[in-house]
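Notes continue from the previous slide.

Worked example: a multi-chain complex. Inputs as given:
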Amino acid sequence: MITLYSFPHSRSHRVSWTLEELGLEYQCRHVALDKGEGQTDAHLARHPDGKVPVIEDGDVCLFESAPICRYLADTYGDGALLPSDPVARAQVDQWLSFIVTELEQPLWNQAKHTFALPEDKRIAAVLPVCAWEFQRALSALERRYNGQEYLVGNTFTLADMFLAHTLSWAVSMKHRLPENLQRYRERHNQRPAMAKAAEKEKAAASA
Amino acid sequence: MITLYSFPHSRSHRVSWTLEELGLEYQCRHVALDKGEGQTDAHLARHPDGKVPVIEDGDVCLFESAPICRYLADTYGDGALLPSDPVARAQVDQWLSFIVTELEQPLWNQAKHTFALPEDKRIAAVLPVCAWEFQRALSALERRYNGQEYLVGNTFTLADMFLAHTLSWAVSMKHRLPENLQRYRERHNQRPAMAKAAEKEKAAASA
């Protein structure tokens, strides 16, 4: 069975969501990052920087959310989450990259300078710059997103999952979204697989 | 013919290097980002944030370096730069993601707060934190890289290209590399395709 190393409200949710969309059996193992469990030898053998998500699937051990989800969709999916057509695939891939490098990084920098970095490394003055950069990335996104149901083609793909997840992260950090992206986020967050995934990570955390 | 929109010493070099490794015919079109050409309507129609690289390949127009290189390797390659075996492919993919989200982001933040952001958004106090974060990412990399010739398997893949490129970026920003990564970088930078690609971007810039 596939094992997902997870932490609630982190990027591991993208992987649990993918696993649920694919209808796969898996177990969640909570890594208590807040108690230093990421930095144990056992976890560093799975993830060289002591983070989540990580999956183990037989002999395969992978870290980084986008590659894990691509691997799962390629290995176990039917081409819906990640199209096999090279052009549609490249378009999903392009948005995944934009989301994790442009849209997410200002949020992650904001989180780092609020709580994730060691206290003596946090620079409060950078927080309004992060907010400005996030709005700039949203504006770039709005040059392509005009209220359509999906980012690429006519089905829900990994690009939609990552965008909905990242927009929810932004909302939890009190960023304002344009109305059509707010609706997009709410619509995709209503997928049953999303709720099941969150429930499973939460249960693992309190086990 | 494939068109690459480029700027010397930027991430477009990863794409020109890939095109040269694949032996493809292509033209470089220089985008004078330093003169505001990225923000023209024509370029914003290609890249929603006005950056490079972008490629046009017939009807296909893509931005973001890693997805472009994956698309080129999948469409025109023989499986060397990007393996077709799902596990080897996922491992290359994992390293690409680590490189662009963990290793490169501190360098990019450093560049942003040195020259790339509008002057009133630059926070000098964040620069030593970027340096600390880069060294932390290098330490994570060193938990997996012990001097082997290639990051994944026994051939040069996109993971090696992106790592060599990002390490060179770090060196140009005066970061110190561990000796084995310095050797790794120098070795891969000697590939003829790398020099040809740099030459072609430079020629486009001075045309």
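Summary box: The mean pLDDT of chain A is 97. Helices of chain A lie at 12-21, 41-44, 65-76, 86-116, 127-142, 158-172, 179-189, 192-206.
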